């Protein structure tokens, strides 16, 4: 049977308190919306409806357009989660629908598949996890009792439904529920569950964002090469007409080499000399792009992925300012993560002061792959 995903992303993110819709908050250089679209992409539904914050629909539309390859629609959200689900459902013409919180942006594809499989025998299936705290029932400041936690589960998303049943339940409902499974139960349907995932934790508060920034490592790298007097300068994987190339075992691209060293340093894998030194003739004359790609393979094999790189160029020439954006775009595309470029001179001091060479310093941030 065909299956749609309704991705609800219209919330204000008030508990996060960052003053913008939660789906537009960035984690490791990507918005929560983009992360959640990656999860949906690996599931590959027949149809995707994204429910956007009502004040920011064009921005949501552009983000989805740029990061989702399949067929999709974007609709504005309502003032409650249930209202947002109702808006999204209007466009669903698939037999099954999975309603997913964008805020659970790291949900593995297996959970989507397990929920979909459960719908073969049940009108409503949710992922849920066992509760690890002891749960108390309270009134005011008094504890009234202790729940039997073996009988409790924490509900997650995606929650799966036969579309016609969910549409009817929403149309008839006079109450607002915090999830669609509760709404379906109030309409008399049975609800079953499959095991959810700890990776599906909902980003709700600043502490939840903090948890995602652990398992990160920073690294630093620097490099300097002198001008050779002939050829054309290659720096930051761009050609600079009118300036001579830099000397080196490779193409002398100080920016690319500083980036390589920063990534290797962050991964604890040594430096450019220990990995691609003069004892490796295949790297003689190699471009910065070759070193950067080989380094990305090394850090990936050691279990890390790149979050971002910051570079500062130290040189009298070339003047970086006029081509800074071009440099950032070229390098970001090569490494698949944001690269920011700054530049300075040495105030007339040292070998860089009389335009004899180009130095660069870089820092890199890596995170362990989840
Ligand atoms: N009117 C709303 C409210 C919530 N949601 C979505 O429902 C999911 C779960 O909601 P929650 O975590 O509560 O998000 P927010 O409403 O943004 O958070 P807060 O309550 O702190 O404002 C989120 O993906 C959120 O974008 C929605 O689409 N429309
Ligand atoms: C749907 C949900 O994520 C299941 O746990 C939850 O009910 C959403 O609640 P919120 O108050 O809108 O965050």
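^ structure tokens above, recovered residues below v
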């Amino acid at each position: 049977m065909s299956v749609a995903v309704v991705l609800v992303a219209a919330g204000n993110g008030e508990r996060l308190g960052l003053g913008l819709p939660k789906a537009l908050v960035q984690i490791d250089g990507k918005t929560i919306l983009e992360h959640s679209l990656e999860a949906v992409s690996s599931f590959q539904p027949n149809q995707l409806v994204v429910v956007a914050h009502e004040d920011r629909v064009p921005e949501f539309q552009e983000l989805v357009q740029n990061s989702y390859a399949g067929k999709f629609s974007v609709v504005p959200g309502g003032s409650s989660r249930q209202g947002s689900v109702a808006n999204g459902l209007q466009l669903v013409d698939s037999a099954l629908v999975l309603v997913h919180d964008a805020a659970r942006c790291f949900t593995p594809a297996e959970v989507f598949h397990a929920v979909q499989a459960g719908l073969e025998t049940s009108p409503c299936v949710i992922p849920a996890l066992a509760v690890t705290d002891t749960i108390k029932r309270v009134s005011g400041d008094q504890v009234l009792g202790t729940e039997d936690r073996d009988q409790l589960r924490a509900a997650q998303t995606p929650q799966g439904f036969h579309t016609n049943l969910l549409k009817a339940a929403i149309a008839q409902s006079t109450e607002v529920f915090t999830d669609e499974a509760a709404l379906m139960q109030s309409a008399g349907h049975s609800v079953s569950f499959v095991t959810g995932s700890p990776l599906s934790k909902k980003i709700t508060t600043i502490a939840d964002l903090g948890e995602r920034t652990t398992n990160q490592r920073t690294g630093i790298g620097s490099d300097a090469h002198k001008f050779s007097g002939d050829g054309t300068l290659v720096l930051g994987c761009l050609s600079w007409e009118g300036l001579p190339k830099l000397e080196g075992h490779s193409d002398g691209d100080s920016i690319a080499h500083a980036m390589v060293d920063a990534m290797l340093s962050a991964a604890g894998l040594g430096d450019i000399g220990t990995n691609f030194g003069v004892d490796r003739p295949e790297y003689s004359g190699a471009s910065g792009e070759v070193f950067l790609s080989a380094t990305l393979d090394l850090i990936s094999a050691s279990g890390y992925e790149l979050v971002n790189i910051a570079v500062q160029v130290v040189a009298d020439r070339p003047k970086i300012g006029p081509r800074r954006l071009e440099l950032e775009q070229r390098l970001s595309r090569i490494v698949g993560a944001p690269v920011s470029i700054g530049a300075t001179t040495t105030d007339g001091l040292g070998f860089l002061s009389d335009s004899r060479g180009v130095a660069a310093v870089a820092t890199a941030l890596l995170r362990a792959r989840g």
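Residues 254-267 form the longest helix (14 residues).
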